[in-house]
Amino acid sequence: MIEPISWHDDTVVMIDQRALPQEERYLSFASHLDVAAAIKNMTIRGAPAIGIAAAMGIALGLMESPEESSEGLSTIFHDLCNRFAQTRPTAVNLFWAIERMRRCFENHCGNSDAKSIKAILKAEAIRIWKEDIDSNRQIGRHGKDLIRDGSTILTHCNAGALATGGYGTALGVIRAARSQHKAIHVLVDETRPVLQGARLTAWEMNKEEIPATLITDNMAGFFMKQGKVDLVIVGADRIAANGDTANKIGTYSLAVLAHEHNIPFYVAAPCSTIDPNTAAGNAIPIEERDETEVLCCGGTRTAPVGINARNPAFDVTPHRYISAIITERGVLKEPFTEAIKQLADFDRADGVSP
Fold it and tell me: Quick one: which of 14, 78, 156, 221 has the most CB atoms within 10 Å?
């Protein structure tokens, strides 16, 4: 199994996704500052993986501290949470993981010594990682029946093992369908400007020996019109309370094209990606990254000097274009507002903050 992030000997180990597919390079981080930098510079990316990295980074930061009083540790802990909250703004899994670490800390800071608190937070971060892998496998189990034998599936960006704890959301559904020996084929959007599809999804498909073909982003409509796309599955970085979904830039265009050609458009994501406190997609913050990612490709400038570029990293797909949202608790369908509210109500009844 691909292991994009793990905890070994009190260090956080990650595949350097910037080096793929040319080199499968693993980096070990013994400092929370390095983990925060890895999130910002996209050494690690993908909403669930970012959340796991933040949790591990917070645990690592506490372990780095020589503070022996629980009171002093509290100040350090909240500073750590604030630091990681500033790394990337769109993926809600980041804030979900920080909040979960915060609840864990507050539940133990009043009745445990500093050494015990550090051990408890480390265990919680590892638990978040392990639970994510299990959730992804459940997403795959719930979603695999949406893929018929012989289907061609279009996917965008990378929502595979590399974007999660180690199995994948959209690609997890594809993996689960493949495990049923279904004859499937994947069309992989290259996903400009950072090429997560061409570099990462294509690499995963090769690793798993799943038949796949790489296409440029602007070829999707061509293949849909020819009847060569049976369904679209993408991941998500944040899902609003009404089902509006933020995902990698270009997802909205695919959803509109799929709607025009009567092709099912599915979103696969864990419940931690759902943000019931954000009413609709227009309230989701959209990260704008450095224009260099657009002006250059593979380190080589492709645009003339003097021209400027815009680089929003995500767009929002309105819920009316989404056929279903596949989660670890089942497949959600319209009305999404009611389905998501039921999930949130279940969490509250279970004592978990949504």
Answer: 156
> Can you tell me the mean pLDDT for 69-81?
90
Q: Do 95 and 82 belong to one domain?
A: yes
Running DSSP on this structure, what letter comes out for residue 156?
-
> Which of 77, 106, 138 is the last residue in one of the domains?
138
pLDDT per position as a tens digit, 246-260: 999 999 999 999 999
Q: Which of 345, 178, 321, 169 is nearest to 255 (CA)?
A: 321
In a domain, 354, yes or no: no
288's tokens: 């704008």
> Which amino acid does the sequence have at 9?
D
Count of domains observed in the chain: 2
List the catalytic residues: 237
DSSP code per residue over 101-154: HHHHHHHHTTTS-HHHHHHHHHHHHHHHHHHHHHHHHHHHHHHGGGS-TT-EEE
81 and 188 inside one domain? no
Residue 268 pLDDT > 50, yes or no? yes
Question: Residue 67: how many CB atoms within 10 A of its CB?
Answer: 17
Tokens representing residue 86 in the block: 């500033």
Q: Any idea which residue has 């992030």 for tokens?
A: 5
Helices 92-108/47-64 angle, 10° precision: 40
